[in-house]
Amino acid sequence: TVYFRVSINSSAVEGEAKVTIAPKTVGLDWTNSAFTYDGGVHAPAATATGLISGDSCSVTVSGAQRDAGSYTATATGLSNGNYALPEDNTCPFVIAKAAPKVTAPKAKALEYTGKAQELVSAGEVTGGTMQYSLDNETWKTDVPTARKAGTYTVYYRVVGDANHTDVAAKRLEVTISKKEEPAPTAKPTVKPTAKPIPVITV
User: Fold this and answer.
1) Global pTM?
2) What is the 3-state secondary structure (H, E, C) of the chain?
């Protein structure tokens, strides 16, 4: 409030007036709007621009996210009351899916047994599910098996979860070898036993 007094000749007029100093609207400089999923919480950072020399002002940002996806961050406050946020106070940002951690399956060395055998040792995945196929069309989470001797192609791929990417199919060649027959055992040769010659007495 400003009080004033005006003197004109021998008379004076007094009064008061309210004066408002409006806060200065800042600009917003957004940085770091693209992230890759890592399990942490992320949001862009905003810096106030257009400040009077010597002033400082930090920006409060809301809307941080953890999971992969597209989001919008919002500047919600300023640390210096002499400044105001602009109408355009949002920033889109993206958290991209990360690659899953994969330990590939390994082909087994197999020999025909007459029973179904798993063709590979199971792979491991963090961030998705491993699937297997023998025809690159029908996919299952179970390790494929086979019974007959022969060579098989085992395909495997990873279907990522909500925060991880898929991994394209790869393949392994696995052989079930024929069972080796033991070599025949030679029969021992039996020499005929000589019969004694009878003695004839005359």
Assistant:
1) 0.75
2) CEEEEEEECCEEEEEEECCCCCCEECEEEEECCEEECCCCCECCEEEEECCCCCCCCEEEEECCECCCEEEEEEEEEECCCCEECCCCCEEEEEEECECCEEECCEECCEECCCCCEECEECCEEECEEEEEECCCCCCECCCCEECCCEEEEEEEEEEECCCECCEEEEEEEEEEECCCCCCCCCCCCCCCCCCCCCCCCC
